[in-house]
Amino acid sequence: MTDCKYHDSAKGDSSRTRSKVTEKKKKTDYGMIKKKNRLVEDIKSTSDNDETCFPVKPLKKQFRTYPCNYCEHTAQKKKLLKIHLTEAHPEVVNRSRKSFVATETVLRARIEHDGKIYYHCSECGKNLNSPYTFYWHLRIHTGERLFTCHLCGKRFRVNQGLTRHLKDTHAGIKNVPCDLCGRMFSTRRNVEDHRRIHTGERPYVCNVCGKTFKQKASLFVHNRTHSDVFPFKCSYCGQTFRTRPPLMVHITKHTGEKPHACDVCGRCFRIKYELKRHRLIHSDEKPWRCTDCSLSFRQKRYLVNHKKLNHEPPRSLAAPQVTG
Predict the structure, then answer these.
(1) Does pTM top 0.85 for this prediction?
(2) Which residues form the signal peptide (predicted)?
C-alpha cells in the first residue's frame, strides 16, 4: 500500500510538472506569434508610407580592402592579397618575424646588462633594444635592400623607407610648405630636412671623425668609410664598393651608358654631378664667390684658380747660401 501511495504521488507530481511546461510553452508560442504579428503590421504600415525607411547600418566588411605593404596594390580579399604577394614579391612571402628573430646571427648578438637585454652590433658597437631593429640595423653594414619600388626600381632596407618613398616621390601629394621659401613637400620630415639648406644646421655628427651632416641618411652612408665592409661588387670586373652609388657610376664605364641628359642642349653625362656642373653654362648663375674681391664663378675650380693667381702670395725663392 505504501508503494502504491508513493507511485500515485509521484504520478501526480509528474503530471503537474508537464502541465507547467505545457503552459510555459504556450505562453512562449503566444509571445512569438504576437511579436510576429507586430512585425507584419510594421512592414505593412511601412510599405504604405513611401517616406518611411529602416535605418540600415553599413556593412563594413563588404567594403574592407587589403593594401600591400610593399607597393601601392590594394586587394579586395585577403586571399587575393596573398596571391599578389606570391607573384609580385616572392622574396618576402616566406619571411616572417619568427624566421629571422631566431637566426644564429641575432642569437649571437644577444647580451644582458643590468637586467636588460640588448643586441650588440660587432661592426659599429651599437646596442639595439630589440631583435627586429638589430636585424634591420645589420643591413646598414651589409648593404642589403630587400624592398623594391615597383615604379622606379629603387631599393630600401626597411619597408617604412619604401612606403615613405612611394608617398614622397610617386603619390604627387605635396601640401606641407617650407616657411622660408614656400617650396612644397609631401611630409613634415622632408620640410625639416630641406630647411637645413637655409639654416646651415648639420645635427648629425660622425662619432669617429667628427664630420657633420644635414641628413641622417648621409651619416649612415659616411659611416661605411670607417669600416672594411665592401658589400657592392661589380659584375664586370669584380671591384668592390662600400656603397651602391659609386658602384652604379663605375658600371657605366663598362656599359658606356650616359643616363643623365641636359634638357637644354641634349648632351649626356655618366654622372649626375657632371650634368649639374654643365647646366651652369646655360645660366647666369655663379654660385662660387671669392671672399677677397667678391668676384663670382660658375664652377669651384675656377674660383680655386682665381685665388691662387690673385690672392695667394707667390712662393719666395730662397737666396743661395754663400759659404766662405
Answers:
(1) no
(2) none
